[in-house]
Amino acid sequence: MRRTSFADMPCSVARTLEVVGEWWTMLVIREAFNGVRRFDDFQGNLGIARNVLAARLQSLVDNEVLERRQYQDRPPRCEYRLTQKGRDLYPVLIAMLTWGDKWMAGESGPPLKLTHECGHAPEAELVCAHCRETLDARQVKAEYVVPRR
């Protein structure tokens, strides 16, 4: 079944899902943040089918989230590095991790522990860029500036 493209929707969430909304994509990005660079390492860590991984990596390269860099000539081999556009997904990944730790971790608790260089655990926290107050959805007004379909 072919999925509908969100690329032309007048919605930033939909357009973002066009890039990172496929199964496996955020896990590939997670691995890249954890220092994975090479195809075989992505494949081994994720247990993903090679053809699916190749498609996800190509899509992330096409969307300039990752860049492909050749590290060996014979045979030619490439690695994948996060671009600035890719690195800007880090707060999204941490927000997903924080939500998952709270709501999906199960009885055994969170499977991963992050520690900031200060020694404390980071958490995703959304704040107003102006007043620095923590945001709550009930305090934020959404106003469409582009007509909806």
How does the SSE layout of this entry go?
Blueprint: H1 12-20, H2 25-33, H3 39-46, H4 50-62, E1 66-72, E2 77-82, H5 84-87, H6 90-103
Antiparallel strand pairs: 1-2
Task: Explain the overall architecture.
The chain is mainly alpha-helical and 149 residues long. The chain has one domain (12-139): Arc Repressor Mutant, subunit A. The chain is built from six helices and two strands. The chain has helices at residues 12-20, 25-33, 39-46, 50-62, 84-87, 90-103; strands at residues 66-72, 77-82. It has a two-stranded antiparallel sheet. Strand 1 (66-72) and strand 2 form a beta hairpin. The mean pLDDT is 93.
Structure summary:
The chain has 149 residues and is mainly alpha-helical.
For the termini, the CA-CA separation is 24 Å
User: Shape from CA axes?
Assistant: globular
Q: Tell me the CATH superfamily.
A: Winged helix-like DNA-binding domain superfamily/Winged helix DNA-binding domain
| Protein structure class | mainly alpha
- Helix percent band: 25-40%
What is the mean pLDDT? 93
Name the strands of the widest sheet in spatial order: 1-2
Tell me the domain tally.
Answer: 1
CATH topology, by name, is: Arc Repressor Mutant, subunit A
Determine and state the CATH class.
Mainly Alpha
Order of SSEs: HHHHEEHH
Q: Proportion of β residues? A: 5-15%
Summed up, the helix count is 6
Number of strands: 2
Q: What is the gyration radius calculated from CA atoms?
A: 18 Å
Low-confidence stretches: none
Major sheet description: 2 strands, antiparallel
